[in-house]
């Protein structure tokens, strides 16, 4: 599991550790890790031209001490001082190692092999200030490798928001713990490749944000054993499709068939289309209450104007509500259910549920997903460039797989079928949602390999994604 901690928590852990260590020891640890990462990216420090962008705080201090180390190993290092002050001991160390302060900042970054962004870290507020923004633009245009210290300057460490201009780094070397903003868009896109330097912090066992990795998902996936039969593996019911959108039913069923349940019941008017593609489906015209027993329902993809989720929400099994099923969804109807509910909105649907604008959800995903989970008393999977899963309590899960090629019609239908199938197979709601998103993103990467994919290609790549995860 990859874990991330809010600034407040990181600062508390730092304070506790600093009290036990000699002055400056933590910063030296951070700077040593940073210098080693920079030297690695340069293929050796000797002869390299390195420019440090140095802000007023300790983030600039890290850059200066790392610069001193690189200068001692033969790099030509200069510092661009952008803050109201600069870390005094760090600057003295740089000068002592032969580094200097740049007199032509833009010229220096244009000639650099590597630029170190030490403008702001966890103490930064808002976007870059104009003088910093100018130098950062020159660095971006220069062809130098851009390495952010702790965080790309200008992004919000706790939320992933980017309020103004921010550094776009090739890599970020972060200290002690990942911060949520490094894992969540739009900030994540600014961070480039992530590297964590252990500085010995003791962090609480429960993080603020976490991201599943292969081995976590492998532990969650349901695997049939000798005694299994199709009913014991779980039956998932899919209420989807309409005369206008029969394809959504086919796609949701295609995800459900590859999600671990032993059988898929389809309920709705698109039975012929479903059977033509998936003859193994148990088809029923409806209503859902008459279709037979299931262990979980999926409702919503392609329903169009046909009645919403009310019937299904009255059942006593877990329900996943997606797409058209989310329209006008009543929080009290969801909250009073005796069984868990999973909602899977994209940003537009989440915005409608929250009564806000889509852009607002996209710029503040973490807040939006937490708010929806609280309001509905449900597990909420917010789709998009970073998919997040939140329950009423516990860490928010960030999905680390996926590709922008997934932004293709119908791929969400495959995901709802898949996650619903995992629910029917007995996974807890947040596990079903996050393992579903993980496999879906992995399948999309496999199916795409840099080329456009259709939603059905994603469904077909799911078995290979399972095998990847299970090793
Ligand atoms: N504590 C530790 O043990 C360890 C900490 N470590 C390191 O310390 C970092 C945190 O250091 P920090 O607390 O000094 O804050 P930091 O991010 O450098 O910047 C704050 C200053 O920047 C300014 N500023 C604010 N917004 C701005 C903006 N938009 N654009 C431009 N400038 C802006 C503002 O000053 P102002 O210019 O307004 O006077 C403010 O005072 C952390 O990320 C890690 O790298 C490591 O060494 C490991 C050990
Ligand atoms: N920019 C993006 N990067 C990565 N994944 C994306 C992006 N945009 C959309 N997705 C993913 O694509 C899928 C689209 O689902 P959805 O919006 O419900 O589409 P549809 O309703 O057409 O099925 C979701 O899994 C979502 O997370
Ligand atoms: K930085």
From TrEMBL:
(6S)-NADPHX binds at residues 58-62, 121-127, 150, 248, 302, 346, 413. Belongs to the NnrD/CARKD family. In the N-terminal section; belongs to the NnrE/AIBP family. It catalyses: (6R)-NADPHX = (6S)-NADPHX; (6S)-NADHX + ADP = AMP + phosphate + NADH + H(+); (6R)-NADHX = (6S)-NADHX; (6S)-NADPHX + ADP = AMP + phosphate + NADPH + H(+). Its cofactor is K(+); Mg(2+). AMP binds at residues 383-387, 412. SUPFAM superfamilies: Ribokinase-like, YjeF N-terminal domain-like. Homotetramer. It comes from Streptomyces gobitricini. This is Bifunctional NAD(P)H-hydrate repair enzyme. InterPro entries: Carbohydrate_kinase_pred_CS (IPR017953), CARKD (IPR000631), Nnr (IPR030677), Ribokinase-like (IPR029056), YjeF_N_dom (IPR004443), YjeF_N_dom_sf (IPR036652). The lineage of its organism: Bacteria, Bacillati, Actinomycetota, Actinomycetes, Kitasatosporales. Binds 1 potassium ion per subunit. The keyword NADP applies. CDD domains: YXKO-related (cd01171). The gene is nnrD. Residues 213-469 form the YjeF C-terminal domain. Its EC number is 4.2.1.136, 5.1.99.6. Residues 10-207 form the YjeF N-terminal domain. Catalyzes the dehydration of the S-form of NAD(P)HX at the expense of ADP, which is converted to AMP. Together with NAD(P)HX epimerase, which catalyzes the epimerization of the S- and R-forms, the enzyme allows the repair of both epimers of NAD(P)HX, a damaged form of NAD(P)H that is a result of enzymatic or heat-dependent hydration. Bifunctional enzyme that catalyzes the epimerization of the S- and R-forms of NAD(P)HX and the dehydration of the S-form of NAD(P)HX at the expense of ADP, which is converted to AMP. This allows the repair of both epimers of NAD(P)HX, a damaged form of NAD(P)H that is a result of enzymatic or heat-dependent hydration. It comes from the Bacteria. K(+) binds at residues 59, 117, 153. Keywords: ATP-binding, Isomerase, Lyase, Metal-binding, Multifunctional enzyme, NAD, NADP, Nucleotide-binding, Potassium. NCBIfam families: yjeF_cterm, yjeF_nterm.
């Amino acid at each position: 599991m990859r874990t991330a901690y809010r600034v407040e928590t990181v600062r508390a852990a730092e304070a506790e550790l600093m009290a036990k260590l000699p002055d400056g020891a933590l910063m030296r640890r951070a700077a040593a890790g940073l210098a080693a990462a920079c030297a690695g990216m340069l293929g050796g420090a000797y002869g390299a031209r390195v420019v440090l962008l140095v802000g007023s705080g300790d983030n600039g201090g890290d850059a200066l001490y790392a610069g001193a180390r690189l200068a001692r190993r033969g790099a030509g290092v200069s510092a661009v001082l952008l803050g109201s002050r600069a870390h005094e001991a760090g600057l003295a160390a740089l000068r002592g190692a032969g580094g200097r302060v740049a007199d032509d900042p833009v010229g220096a970054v244009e000639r650099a092999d590597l630029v170190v962004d030490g403008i702001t870290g966890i103490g930064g507020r808002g976007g870059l200030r104009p003088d910093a923004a100018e130098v950062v633009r020159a660095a971006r245009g220069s062809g130098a490798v851009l390495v952010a210290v702790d965080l790309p300057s200008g992004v919000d460490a706790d939320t992933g928001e980017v309020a103004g201009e921010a550094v776009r780094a090739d890599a970020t070397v972060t200290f002690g713990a990942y911060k949520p903003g490094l894992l969540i868009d739009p900030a994540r896109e600014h961070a480039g490749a992530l590297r964590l330097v252990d500085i010995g912090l003791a962090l609480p066992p429960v993080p603020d944000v976490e991201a599943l990795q292969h081995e976590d998902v492998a532990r969650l996936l349901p695997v049939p054993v000798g005694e299994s039969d199709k009913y014991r593996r779980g039956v998932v019911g899919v209420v989807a499709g309409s005369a206008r959108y029969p394809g959504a039913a086919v796609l949701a069923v295609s995800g459900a068939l590859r999600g671990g349940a032993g059988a898929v019941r389809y309920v709705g008017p698109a039975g012929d289309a479903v059977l033509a593609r998936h003859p193994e489906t148990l088809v029923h015209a409806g209503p859902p209450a008459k279709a037979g027993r299931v262990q979980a329902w999926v409702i919503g993809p392609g329903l169009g104007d046909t009645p919403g989720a009310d019937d299904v929400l009255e059942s006593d099994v877990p329900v996943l509500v997606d797409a058209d099923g989310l329209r006008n969804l009543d929080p009290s109807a969801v909250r009073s259910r005796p069984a868990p509910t999973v909602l899977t909105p994209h940003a537009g649907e989440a915005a409608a549920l929250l009564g806000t604008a889509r852009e607002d959800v996209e710029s503040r995903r973490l807040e939006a997903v937490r708010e929806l989970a609280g309001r509905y008393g449900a597990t909420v999977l917010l789709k998009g460039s970073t998919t997040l899963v939140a329950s009423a309590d516990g860490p928010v899960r960030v999905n680390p797989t996926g590709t922008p090629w997934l932004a293709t019609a119908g791929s969400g239908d495959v995901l709802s079928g898949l996650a619903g199938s995992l629910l029917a197979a007995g996974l807890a709601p947040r596990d079903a949602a996050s393992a579903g998103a993980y496999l879906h993103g992995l399948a999309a990467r496999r199916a795409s390999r840099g080329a456009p994919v259709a939603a059905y290609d994603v469904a077909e790549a799911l078995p290979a994604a399972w095998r990847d995860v299970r090793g």
